[in-house]
Specification:
single chain; about 450 residues; alpha+beta; 6-stranded mixed beta sheet; 3-stranded antiparallel beta sheet; 16 strands; about 35% helix; globular; metal-binding; metal ion binding; metalloexopeptidase activity
């Protein structure tokens, strides 16, 4: 059986259990449709419902839908193909997935409702419903949270087909990262580096899974920086790039930091890379992701003392809260159909959730690690003046050393990990190794 055949069998099984437990006979998953800007008739780039592309690798066909009846083991895909002379038709090539579904091409949503008849009224609807006629459809429930929680909890365990797609998404992004690195060392501006990234994989900007972070020098300390200066700085010091790619709807998310010259910042990047790789060896089924996050904080604390940013041992630096000022974000997150894939707080498929950590409120994943989980590991260390204000009177902090790092911004390194029973796969580093780039 092919990887996709196994995948859709698993998806059917997961929907069967979710529908049974939540007393639904069927579900209609709507792909979504473009939403125009306020007071305008132009729409931002369309993003498909992740639970639609969970079934089939179709990401550019708005107004489509999937109907699935519990126990049927075969969904019906209503693929919308508009009769429209204003726009190019959506190209959906013949692929294996079409052998495992009942495919119906429609050019009007009324065809879908007429075809389903009374079955629509007995279905749970999952998707956006801001526009007519979808908003007027009579269904049993719209986006029932208990059903969605059930599905989200279980889709954190990736099928082999999903891992294959994630592997390819990392290969694409790694290729683009290499091009961006070369542009950095060639002295290009942030915008020129961004263009080099997209050109390397023939992507439009709307095709990347999130706004790429292309940050030179102090911009690296802005965690979601996406401004892109058009002129390179007079003195180039550092480069942080956080950028991904998509393949069949699955996302990659890679961060690398580079020093323009040897010295203090290059040594810091090397220390962070070593600490990140040490943490990767701690990833095992049954380990709490929260504990991994704390372990990384202790490693960051050790770097802070080794580089003389802060006086004290690693434990005391962590206990005093200093590391949260230098590494404010979480260690990572689930990744898959979405960059920040869902389900990181769910304890079970009944919707019971972990409370967000007071000590580490930006951590997106609190579950124990399981075989089949795919998540990122992305430690960082930055000079963020707003966060350091709390410690401005601290005698423990070597402010001269902090000032030395400030022009470089910060450092972050991010990989995606597939958890296995007998060892883990680093999708990101493997992709770079295939290119001979790491």
């Amino acid at each position: 059986m092919s990887a996709y055949a196994e995948h859709i069998k698993t998806v059917c099984s997961r929907f069967d259990k979710a529908l049974e437990d939540n007393q639904f006979e069927s579900v209609l998953v709507y792909s979504g449709q473009p939403r125009v800007d306020f007071l305008d008739d132009n729409a931002p780039p369309y993003r498909v419902n992740p639970l639609f592309k969970y079934w089939v690798p179709v990401t550019e066909s708005p107004k489509s839908a999937i109907f699935y009846r519990k126990g049927s083991q075969r969904p019906t895909v209503y693929l919308f193909q508009a009769r429209d002379f204003w726009h190019a038709p959506v190209n959906v090539p013949e692929e294996e997935w079409q052998q495992h579904v009942d495919l119906k091409i429609i050019d009007d949503l009324s065809t879908l409702t007429e075809d389903l008849g009374s079955d629509l009224e007995q279905s749970a609807f999952i998707g956006e419903d801001f526009a007519q006629p979808v908003s007027d459809w009579k269904v049993k429930a719209r986006n029932p949270q208990a059903l969605i929680d059930h599905l989200h909890f279980h889709r954190s365990i990736k099928t082999q087909w999903e891992v294959d797609n994630l592997r390819e998404a990392n290969r694409l992004a790694a290729k683009a990262h290499v091009a961006a690195k070369e542009a950095f060392f060639a002295g290009k501006s942030e915008l020129e580096i961004h263009h080099a990234y997209l050109s390397a994989i023939d992507f439009r900007e709307s095709q990347v899974p999130y706004n790429s972070i292309v940050a030179l020098n102090s911009h690296s300390a802005i965690l979601h920086y996406d401004v892109y200066d058009t002129v390179p700085p007079k003195q180039i010091r550092s480069f942080l790039i956080d950028a991904g790619a998509r393949y069949r709807g699955y996302c990659s998310d890679i961060t690398r930091s580079y020093a323009y010259e040897e010295g203090f910042y290059a040594d810091l990047v090397e220390a962070m890379d070593k600490a990140q790789q040490e943490l990767l060896s701690e990833i095992k089924p049954g380990v709490s992701y929260y504990d991994l996050h704390v372990s990384m904080h202790l490693k960051v604390a050790q770097i802070l003392t080794d580089f003389e940013f802060i006086k004290g041992d690693a434990q005391s630096i962590y206990d005093k809260g200093y590391t949260s000022a230098f590494m404010p974000h979480g260690l990572g997150h689930f990744i898959g159909l979405q960059v920040h894939d869902v389900g990181g707080f769910l304890k079970d498929d009944k919707g019971n959730s972990y409370e967000r950590s007071e000590r580490h409120p930006f951590l997106r994943l609190l579950r124990d690690i399981e075989v089949g989980h795919v998540f990122t590991i992305e430690p960082g260390l930055y000079v963020v003046d707003q966060l350091l204000e709390e410690h401005k009177d601290s005698a423990d902090i070597n402010w001269e050393k902090v000032d030395e790092l400030r022009p470089y911004g910060g450092v972050r390194i991010e990989d995606s990990i597939v958890v296995g029973a007998d060892g883990n796969e680093n999708l990101t580093r493997d992709a770079f190794k295939e290119l001979g780039a790491e």
